Structure formats: structure tokens, C-alpha cells
Amino acid sequence: MHKEELIQLHTYMAQMKRYFERHGVTHEFDDYKALSISPVHIHRSKADHKRAIFILGGELATLMSRDDPIFEEASAHMRDSMNSVIKLIGNN
Prior knowledge:
By secondary structure, this protein is mostly helical. It is 71% helix and 0% strand.
């Protein structure tokens, strides 16, 4: 993937993270937060964004694998989008 595509994916995943944070799920993203990178940090390297995507993707996948009421409240679109992102990460 090109850096711009990685940043776009990183942006989408960060939006999903914010969705869960708005619903009270905050402690699940400690490893991602420790990286101190966000999609708006376009000056950071491609490798930095790729690392952030893999870490955030892992944290989102772990969260999604739980039997948590937050997913009962989430829309079907959000779940489908999350699964698409996880599948995309798994193919790279």
C-alpha cells in the first residue's frame, strides 16, 4: 500500500476507535495510544502508520471478539465495516 492509502485506512480505524471511546470503551487502546501517532501526523513515516494500523487493528479485533453489550448497540454497518478493515489488514 502507498503511504496515502495507509493514512486513509489509519483514519478510518481511528474513527472506529473514537466511536467506541464515546461509548465508554477507553482502556482497550493503551498500546495504540503509547505510539503517540494519529492519522493527522502525515509527517510520520509509512512504517509508523503501518505499525499503528496493525496495533490498533489488533486492539479493535480483540474488542470485537468479546461478548460485549457495546456491539449489541452498534449498527450493523459499523460491524460490517469493522470486519472489512480486519479482513483488509489480514490480507496484507
